[in-house]
Input
Amino acid sequence: EHSTPARHVPEHDDLEALDSSRAHPAAGGAGHYGAAGPAQAYVRITRGCNKFCSFCVVPMTRGMEQHRPPDQIVAEARRLAARGVREVTLLGQTVNHYTWSDDRGRVTTFADLLRRVHDEVPELPRLRFVTSFPRDFTDDALRAMAGSPRICRYLHIPAQSGSNRLLKAMNRGYTVEDYRDLLDRARSLMPDICLSGDMIVGFPGETEADFTTSVDLLRYARYKNCFIFKYSPRPGTAAYDRFDDDVPDEIKRRRNNDLLAVQAEINLANHRELIGRSVEVLVEGLSKAQLRRQESEQDRGCEVEACPPLPRDASDDRIVQLTGRTSGDQIVVFDGPRSLIGGILPVEVFAATPYTLHGRLTHAGAVEPAPRALQVETAGSGAFRLRVLNAAS
Ligand code: SF4
Output
């Protein structure tokens, strides 16, 4: 797909960089680490794309689709898990179009690959993949997800438009009815799945009626988030050659803002449903608010020499605001010591905004072992204090 969610390395140039990262000593020769440092890693399984969507340069710049042998992928996931990685994301522009035929003609489909990585690397707590192409999502792949509890309940499946006329002009190869059917099938097998999408506004010839169909699709999909792009013509693409970029920029901007507003409403409604529930998060690091707080403390430290430097080592057990992701890719911020980074923990959600869930740690037992042992001391009225136990205890 042309784009992938921000944290999943959105640009194709970055996807390219992932391959060279394998040779980088910091990556230990395998995978590419994500936001939680060595707790998350990316493994490319396909490169290039054969879809030729009319707006996209990828087939020209990255070439035709090529796939890696499944044994290599499984071995890489196993090596990463042995190194302490908690979450592996399989990468490809159209990741679910993965297929491999060995010398004896035995075919490994994407569904087979998911089952292999899940079953043959049981020590890996989380497995994800991005980005999927709607037309290629088979029931078998959905069943592989549904039957594999450590595969994250998250699907990024860009629709790009709710208008069949525009989907055809984009050369997407599916109708909005096909797309809705895929969402229905995914939800019927995995009621807890979180879906995300991409939409383009202002594609050549997009009328107000076309745009309304995209709004309708957004409401139908109830995405956990949607990446919205204003169309811009790319030389070398079919759309550049065939169509005038005839939607004025102010209309593109307005449609972009309208879709963002609809999506924010949906986000908030989705998030509110989680209030009072316990969710499991992989702790990725300090929250943005905590980082800003630290930066401002450091800035003040430049002016006031007495201000002590901020400790950065994992043994610091002061409570900070951390950020984590659920299996469905929702962001949760909560207070805890930084030694929890890289752990998978239950967090109870108590508040929600359109883009963030606010939670609190519920108990000491990490779902998967956290980097260090914790002791929680309750201090009445729901407050708690966390004590990090040293390795000897
Ligand atoms: S599926 Fe379409 S949008 Fe995605 S990379 Fe391929 S050509 Fe580009």
About this structure: The mean pLDDT is 84. The domain at 6-272 is CATH 3.80.30.20 (pyruvate-formate lyase- activating enzyme).
